[in-house]
Amino acid sequence: MVSEQDIRQLVVVGSSAGGIDALSTLVGTLPADFPAPILVAQHLDPQRVSHLPEILSPRSTLPVRVVTDQVPLEPGVVFIVPADRHVEINDHSISLLEEAGRPKPSIDLLLTTAASIFGEGLFAVILTGLGSDGTAGARDVKAAGGTVIIQNPDTAQYDSMPRSLAPTTVDIVANLENIAAILHDLLTGAQVVAPETWDQQLRAFLKQVQDSSGIDFSNYKASTIRRRLQHRMVAVGVNNLDAYLRYMRRHPGEYQKLVATFLIKVTEFFRDTELFDELRDRVLPALIEVGRGRRELRLWSAGCATGEEAYSLAILVSELLADDLDQMTVRIFATDLDADAVAFARRGIYPAAALANLPPELVDRHFTKTDGAYEVSKRTRGLVVFGQHDLAQRAPFPRIDLTLCRNVLIYFTPELQRRALHLFAFALRDRGLLVLGKAETTGSFSDSFALTNPALKIYERIGNRVLIPPTRSPSSPLAVSRREHAVPINLDVAQRTQQEALTRTRAGGDAPEGLLARFPVGVVVVDRRYDIQFINSAARRLFGIHTTAIGQDFIHLVQNASLLPLRTAIDLAFRGESPSGIYPVAITETVMGDVRHLEVTCYPERLEGFDGHPDAVIILVQDASERVNDRTALEHSLRQAEAQTSELQSRVERLSATNAQLLTANEQLAEANAELLSGNEELLVANEEVQAATEEVETLNEELQATNEELETLNEELQATVEELNTTNEDLQARSVEMQELAVTLEAQREASETERVRLNAVLSSINDGVLVVDLLGQTVLANEAYGRVFGGAERDPTLEREPGRPLPLEAAPRWRATRGETFNEELTFLLPNGTRCWIEANGTPIRSEGAMSGAWW
């Protein structure tokens, strides 16, 4: 027997419909040296004898055993849970429990029990199946630090079980034939970072992730980081950090998946009861009362994960407004960086376990039961707008009354924390509220927020209005990965520029934090579509770009510029020509109308490992207005000097002629001197008038500057409104796709129903006895030809008698007894129109569907 100390890892596999084929494939691919016990639980009819052990044994290189009473755990053994019993597990054995309610065995119970014992050593595998058993258990596995793997829903025979798990719960999605190899690699640590290389290699890797995402993971538990990094390395099929770094450079979307794996996203409906009680009793009623005047209420759930928090807000608002809900425009913006989590939240379908702590009356009013799960009602769903949103890159939503951003800032670097708080300060209305996590504060942004509830970390927006902060630089691969056609760029030139800036910093320049954003040299990276892949703040300022710009056409963004030299320079670089000089570009200021001159140099760049034409161009830009203006002024002065020289030569010729006149003029000077004294007094008066005019011009300039600031403010609000419209449009497109899929499903169901009806008519027609099917109101649903021949039509009932001369009362007629759901057998008689008496045997049986009577026949 294996000792308790030897069992540190366990694999639990759950499935239902279609599970026999899936389990056969999984067990058949397990290697003979598999290092952990495997416990298999499948939903089967407990009344039927299970042949699962006999099916799996010939396909497995490992022993297959059925759990009986209490058996010890052994590595490399496949244990089958009986179909008619629940099981419980401890650190060394498996025990059968007393019979309980169905379904049996409970995958949720098994996973929850195992998670409390094995923690990080538990590996949960969810295969094909109907329903959502395993969803709650998988959440417990994730919370305990275990690993959750699901069969790819797109390839599963029945996708309900694997698809019911939220993306934030799942570590790896894999095709069935690859799961055994993935489990073996995870259990044996084939691709884990060795502890001895942690300081030298892994910390450098985490620093690159921090530079790219703005999130600092250096303080995370080392074993947790290694394990979760291993998940991603196994999932993409690489076996060392260098290979994984190369993979991320080729696939920028992997940054987002890695960060989502590192972050712990535990969420549920009305999580933190004390906070939601405060929102329900005080915060939201006050905001609603203020919002009634403008007939609008706008909330923002930033970092909404799989949507439970956003829907909780929607439920509270619906309950508080009740019948007045249609009288106000309510918008709840729910955003998250994880696109998969947002897609899950947008569906609005949750397993029963997710609603276990909600009062039944709330579930009845705001959810609809469907296929063993619960779907958010259309009225509640319509209040929420979901969208993918990067706090490091995207503009905020304007005019927000309440923002919830709980347990998000604790993962950010100080720079990204300040930017996020800056966004919230812009987004919130004056006196609007911000709710943070228990371990989070507004820090250095306290001038814009006042703490109103220290226990629940509720802040009130105060102070002067702020503008939208500039986009964090360098551009995050998390933002680039949102675009499907984004091209990974080699930023060697930009990195060299940044290194030069850092060298200046060490010599006494600025602090490294935010240096690239303040560096005077503009850097822009565009792909072959002229789409911007990278842009720093200096380039935004020089080119007059005030939007996020990432993924947009660079040529069209640069307004009021001489585009021909700019496009020519880029095209020459794409043809592979090295920069031989500086291309001049002139840009006209939109407010003052002044012309600014730029010097632009383009560098062709190729991706690592690829030959041929460049895939991107790096554009370096500097402001050359001062040099151009100086050169223009010098040319003007030179032309003036040449004109003056010509004039002097003419004057020399006239000098001799006028010399004689000087004596005469000298005499006139005395007279003119007196006039000059008078003119000097007039000049002093004119000088005072000029000074007054100068002061007036300065006043007008100040007013113009104020107008310019107002225009900038309006532009910021316009950007925020555009962001809101884009997010709303994304949500509407997703809903349109759902409606189209629903229409296809309904049409298929209608065609199937019609087919069944045709088949039923054919069956009825082939029966010689008369058959009549009625609904619960006694209306005829179906009648065969034999019935029509006997009684003269489907709607006709003759006057039936139990004996000649004793007519049946109406309520005792077969048609009406059938509508009441009675089962009967009775001999009856009636007279035909020709006077002939007929005897019939009337049999009635109710038709039941899904446990309820939907009709009857006789």
Helix content: 40-55%
Strand residue percentage? 15-25%
Number of strands: 32
The coarse overall form would be elongated
Q: Spans of 5+ residues with little confidence (pLDDT < 50)?
A: 1-5, 472-516, 850-855
Keywords:
858 residues; 25 helices; 32 strands
Question: What's this model, at a glance?
Answer:
The protein has 25 helices and 32 strands. By secondary structure, the protein is α/β, with parallel strands linked by helices.
Write up this protein.
The protein is an alpha/beta fold and 858 residues long. Helix content is 43%, strand content 20%. The protein contains 25 helices and 32 strands. The strands form seven sheets. Strands 3-5-2-1-8-9-10 form a seven-stranded parallel beta sheet, sandwiched between helices. A seven-stranded mixed beta sheet has the order 16-12-11-17-18-20-19. Strands 22-21-25-24-23 form a five-stranded antiparallel beta sheet. Strand 28 (801-803) and strand 29 form a beta hairpin. The longest helix has 141 residues, at 625-765. The two termini are 66 Å apart.
Describe the SSE topology.
Layout: E1 10-15, H1 19-28, E2 38-42, H2 52-56, E3 64-66, E4 70-72, E5 78-80, E6 87-89, E7 93-96, H3 107-118, E8 122-126, H4 135-143, E9 147-151, H5 160-164, E10 172-174, H6 176-188, H7 198-213, H8 222-236, H9 241-250, H10 253-262, H11 273-291, E11 296-302, H12 308-321, E12 329-336, H13 339-347, E13 349-351, H14 360-366, E14 367-370, E15 373-376, H15 378-381, E16 384-388, E17 400-405, H16 414-427, E18 428-436, E19 449-453, E20 458-461, H17 477-480, H18 492-506, H19 515-518, E21 522-527, E22 532-535, H20 537-543, H21 554-557, H22 563-574, E23 583-588, E24 595-605, E25 616-623, H23 625-765, E26 772-774, E27 780-783, H24 785-791, E28 801-803, E29 806-807, H25 814-819, E30 824-831, E31 837-849, E32 852-857
Helix pairs in contact: 1-6, 3-4, 8-10, 11-12
